[in-house]
TrEMBL record:
Family stated for the protein in its record: Belongs to the TRAFAC class TrmE-Era-EngA-EngB-Septin-like GTPase superfamily. EngB GTPase family.
Gene3D superfamilies in the cross-refs: P-loop containing nucleotide triphosphate hydrolases
Domain EngB-type G: 27-199
InterPro entries linked: G_ENGB_dom, GTP-bd, GTP-bd_ribosome_bio_YsxC, P-loop_NTPase
Pfam families in the record: MMR_HSR1
Biological-process GO terms, alphabetical: division septum assembly
Organism: Palleronia abyssalis
Protein name as annotated: Probable GTP-binding protein EngB
GO molecular function: GTP binding; metal ion binding
Length: 199
């Protein structure tokens, strides 16, 4: 279907941006992947595009330190630095955190933000804070549970229900949650379909 067709086309890295004035022209539909450090943003982009090293992923929280733009057909895909703990100098972290927040609150062509939450842990206060920022900026966002392959049966419903409840308090949130694993590929086609449906 549409999602598979779209993601069969080549995704290309465009640029890494370190300041708002470095953003490319806002002449295309844009989607971004936001979430706490290490939640699996870069890995999800690689899974969606089926290109292992396209977005750099690693086990070190704070791997992605720039706002990275990729082009796919009529879309910009944007890999964001994470929020929360990062394994990097405080001054540097503060800079990229400020940029990430400015980006989320001030990008005219941002059609949808995908907000990634680790399925094992569910939403944290800092996720709620980012959701408030998106509400204020009127950026529609959709939650994606990541690392579904790692969640214990005992935590699965609890973390999903907690996320549902959190989303219900945010006017900019879509109620539908996409459950994914970049490891097994679960939910990846579903998410491709959601993205292909944006216009
Ligand atoms: P930052 O750029 O540091 O904010 O992290 P990120 O959100 O981009 O996370 P990244 O994609 O770099 O992944 C972090 C770690 O989680 C890596 O070791 C990945 O291999 C692992 N990971 C990501 N997605 C999954 C998944 O679905 N399942 C499993 N088991 N591991 C995953
Ligand atoms: Mg990353």
């Amino acid at each position: 279907e549409a999602g598979r067709l779209l993601f069969r086309r080549e995704t290309q890295f465009l640029k890494g941006v370190v300041a708002m004035d470095g953003l490319p022209p806002d002449d295309r539909i844009e989607i971004c992947f936001a979430g706490r450090s290490n939640v699996g943003k870069s890995s999800l982009i690689n899974a969606l595009t089926d290109r292992k090293g396209l977005a750099r992923a690693s086990n070190t929280p704070g791997r992605t330190q720039e706002v990275n733009f990729f082009t796919l057909e009529h879309l910009y895909l944007v890999d964001l630095p994470g929020y929360g703990f990062a394994n990097a100098p405080v001054k540097v972290v503060e800079q990229w955190q400020a940029l990430m927040r400015a980006y989320l609150g001030g990008r005219a062509n941002l059609r949808r933000a995908f907000l990634l939450i680790d399925h094992r842990h569910g939403p944290k206060p800092v996720d709620d804070e980012i959701m408030c920022l998106l509400d204020k900026a009127a950026v529609p966002f959709q939650a994606v549970l990541t690392k579904a392959d790692k969640v214990k049966a005992a935590d699965r419903d609890r973390t999903r229900d907690k996320l549902r409840e959190t989303l219900s308090k945010h006017p900019a949130a879509f109620p539908e949650i996409v459950i994914t694993s970049s490891e097994t590929g679960a939910g990846i086609d579903t998410l491709r379909g959601v993205i292909a449906g944006l216009n």
